[in-house]
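tl;dr need the bound structure. longer version: we got a ligand (flavin mononucleotide) that a collaborator sent over and nobodys looked at where it sits. i said id run it. heres the input, straight from their email, havent touched it
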Amino acid sequence: MADLSVKIAGVEFKNPVIPASGVFGYGREYEELFPLSKLGGIATKGTTITKRNGNPSPRIAETPSGMLNSVGLQNPGIDKFISEELPNLMTKDTVILANIAGSTADECVEIAKKLDETDVHMIELNISCPNVKQGGMAFGATCDGAAGITKRVRQVTKKPLVVKLSPNVTSIAEIAKSVEAEGADALSLINTVLGMRIDINTKRPILKNNMGGMSGPAVLPIAVRMVWQTANAVNIPIIGMGGISSGEDAVEMMMAGASAVQVGAAIFTDPYAPIKIIDGINDYLDSNNIKSVSEIIGSVQPW
Amino acid sequence: MKYTQGKYQVLEKKALAKDIFSIVILCPEIAEIAVPGQFVHILPQGCTLRRPISICDIDREKGTLRIVFIVKGDGTKNIAAVNEGSLIDMLAPLGHGFTLDKSFKKVVLVGGGIGTPPMLPLAKIYGEKAAVISGFRSAEAVILQEDFKKTGAETILCTDDGTTGIKGFVTQPLKELLEQGSIEAVYACGPMPMLKNIAALADSANVYCEVSLEERMGCGIGACLVCACKTKKDGEEHFAHVCKNGPVFNAKEVIW
Ligand SMILES: Cc1cc2nc3c(=O)[nH]c(=O)nc-3n(C[C@H](O)[C@H](O)[C@H](O)COP(=O)(O)OP(=O)(O)OC[C@H]3O[C@@H](n4cnc5c(N)ncnc54)[C@H](O)[C@@H]3O)c2cc1C
Ligand SMILES: Cc1cc2nc3c(=O)[nH]c(=O)nc-3n(C[C@H](O)[C@H](O)[C@H](O)COP(=O)(O)O)c2cc1C
Ligand code: FES
């Protein structure tokens, strides 16, 4: 058994595997299948200041080796999250990353202020949701936008701040640098890749929102590339995600430079995916005589 | 345990009509707790997403579930390709089933097309107290009528083109039954326009009505919120989730 623990922005994770924001709710449903304490951490559903219903259905479509979603940040609002979900999550012996997604900078600041007064371990600031008209990806699309919102949220919280980046940009490394310069403690990437599918019989997009965010195995190479480019550009740790569905995928992402990984779509295919990924990482380390998972972080030897 | 995931053996596979298959799966721990109206979430080979399919029969003694489905796209095609003896990856039982009341003296079960299978477990429970109205496009699409007869329920068959049974929609015989009075509940599954008409008929006859809805799904257990459908409760609109709050809803709560 190798040492699977990692440290990100001063926070200890017992292992580097975290269900991604939006696929895991607040853990209640998956707790029927396995204890949440097995997980390195949990990234909770993106929270806005007040309740949001999200976009009309259909909100999901299958794509070759992947999927599109257009949920649009359905959530009960920050006050309910803090009163009804967070206290329960904090008893689960795992790191809790509260994902926040305001539609304006003011809203993100308000949410972050409220979270600053809780016991939550980390804040994951989502500046990359492709499924909302305001905020979301628009914040993360330019260096100025990303820097501006990071700066404002940084001012109101002492919690370790992870900024979640969008892949739908020309240079993710430039965005990452501007976020780092404004005090982000870590980065997480990638959020979903903007995509679309059309039913050729009805000529209608499958998603009612027309477009949606693509994730799942098909995006893994894009995500590995972006994590690698970002890791080469910044000095803060990175949580890598996008298409990870096995221990091998996680190892690859960590070699590209990620200190931990998040798992999204793979959980729909196999609800035990996070557990199997933890075991898979351990198997890789054991069979290669590597004592600690932290040894593989950024260990790719590029040509 | 509320639900579980694993690989389960297919004991029997039969074609019931063109592109419609019936599969019996050995899964004692699921059969033990499954109730009418719930569904199973099957991972077809080669797919990223699971496919929700209603439970069509629960046999606790044999430890089996039966599902009946139509081949629509790649997912259901791959499920249909599974052979007897091989394994199927299933997360089940899921969702909120039909509300049963043994004190009801007369109920109507209405199934339209591939919406008929989830009516079978209800027919088994209500037996002679049930009238089952099934509607199909045409004679060659008719399924499960023998199974319904075996439950002791009264069976009424309709086809759109009149090639067998009554020519016309299920709503006609339903209306007649409701007019006779004494019906205490209507349960229905099928296409949305059919369910909407059934709900309206039940409402005007002041009879309790439950409908089983469909929506595209991700997790199937209430975590990802992709399967939203609009409902109302106490005059307020909600986005309920078909996989967890449903698939069975009180028809009065559905926003059509
Ligand atoms: C609660 C519930 C119970 C169901 N019970 C049955 C049943 O007993 N028998 C049966 O034949 N069918 C049933 N369906 C419909 C069945 O899930 C779809 O026909 C099936 O998912 C189609 O998959 P596909 O890959 O063959 O088709 P495709 O059209 O290629 O599917 C593409 C994607 O859309 C989803 N999708 C397409 N149509 C539907 C639909 N109507 N509902 C939900 N998701 C859909 C698929 O799951 C897949 O993710 C049920 C659906 C729900 C929600
Ligand atoms: C259904 C669904 C909902 C999501 N909701 C959120 C969200 O609320 N906030 C967020 O930051 N990311 C959200 N994401 C993006 C994931 O957290 C993750 O970045 C992305 O899916 C890539 O990982 P994957 O390929 O493993 O799925 C969502 C993804 C899916 C599939
Ligand atoms: S399918 Fe995930 S909440 Fe219903």
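gonna send this back to them w/ a short note. The interface with chain A takes residues 1-5, 43, 47-50, 75, 91, 215-219, 221-229, 239, 244 of chain B (CB under 8 Å).
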